[in-house]
Amino acid sequence: MTDRLHTDTLIIGAGSAGCVIANRLSANPQHQVTLVEAGGKDNWHWIHIPVGYLYTMGNPKTDWCYSTTPQKGLNGRCLAYPRGRVLGGCSSINGMIYMRGQKDDYASWGEGWSWDDVLPYYKKSENYHRGADDFHSDQGEMLVQEQRLKWDILETFKKVCEESGFTDRPDFNRGNNSGIGYFEVTQKKGVRWSSARAFLHPVMHRSNLKVMTKTLTERLVFEGDRCVGMEGTRHGKPLSIRAERVVLAAGAIGSPSLLERSGIGSESVLKPLGIPIRNRLEGVGKNLQDHLQVRLQYHLERGETLNQQANSWLGRIKMGLQYVYNRSGPLSMAPSQLGAFFKSSDEVDRADLEFHIQPMSADKLGIDLHRFPGMTASVCHLRPESRGTTHISGTNASDVPIIDPNYLSQAYDRDVVCKAIEKTRDLMDHPLLSEFSPSEHKPGRIQKTDHDLVKAAGDVATTIFHPVGTAKMGSDTDGETVVSKKLGVHGLRDLYIADASVVPTITSGNTHAPVVMIAERLAEWLD
Q1: Which residues are catalytic?
Q2: How many domains does the chain divide into?
Q3: Which has the closest alpha carbon to 219: 265, 155, 272?
């Protein structure tokens, strides 16, 4: 027997965006709001301890555990592709860095989406630790705070950058990111502050808000060109929800997958799977953009790093006591603490490379740290030209999507990655770092040509978990767009998308804050 429910507004996906929209719409008692989430509740302690991302990523309890297709640009490697599957979505497993991007990033977003247009919506949700000014607010629900630890190796690298011409940049969220500084994070005194903690849990008591976990949406339901609900399962039992309007907030992988299972997308994808075409939109699942980080790892002869602490029982006890005592120390760490933005060349108009500097090293995220003192200088290209795709592989929600980011497929991206490696090595050779005596552990300085550098990058590069663009926003005269500038799906009524999939071109940095901003805008339009 199928359970049948009815609601005013159905939101699919309780992640970075869905929690915001549920909060805002349910503040109006005239709205009946139902929020469904495929994952479970966010009551596992490792979700809330910041370093817990090491345990939540790659764990089916909190992650969809996707992977990419073999990537030619990465020498045939497949990458793990974490996506949150829990209340809070990716904001419950991400790196917690609060980053809006740069002012000029929004010039390509279209009418109504300039920096000046979106800044009020960033401020609406924000509670900034330094207080309110022209760029920040201290009245919102999303806490933005400083990190709660320092490392000598990071302080020294910061001085190296400053001596090399980098501007001291204590705030990366004022429109110009060029410079070096410590990342600010979405935490509350050393505890992760996800969208669920910020926007959902405080309003769960509202009588007009229903939150349903372990609820998997198989497909959307239509009457003519109107979206009128969903069909799926809850705890494995059939479920049908009827709604006056539906908002997809399932993310850059989940939302295009749901559209395609519902007959919305390209004939070349749907026809071989036997899915009848309801609305032909060629852009569904295309335009996938992501930030690829090249992780240069260094062996330090001297200096204290997380490697030593994590590899000794005494160090682990110390870390635990620090966190219990005042929520500080390594357990309060975001994956990256120190950041820098800079140009790959004088030909670009603004910073297009970003450092994530970490006082630790490992062969890859989530495995044991090296036994030696180590640091990682991770550098990523912020505006890649390479574009990929994500498409369904079958008709069921359990069928794993085919994710092909197509990393380093464009010659321009390969040229920039060579410059990024060379700049990193120049900085690591600075005399100020001689007290630590760093030597490059991976990829190792054996490359002689740009071709060698690209191959080396392919060996050590990985995603920094920022997929966007797979249901991009824009005019319906552009054959690749999926939603209008007010986020309604082209050619259909009462169906909206608010998540990273609508981003037409990727912003310069982490994507959680832009997704929250997008959700704020749609919530205002729907209220």
Answers
A1: 466
A2: 2
A3: 265
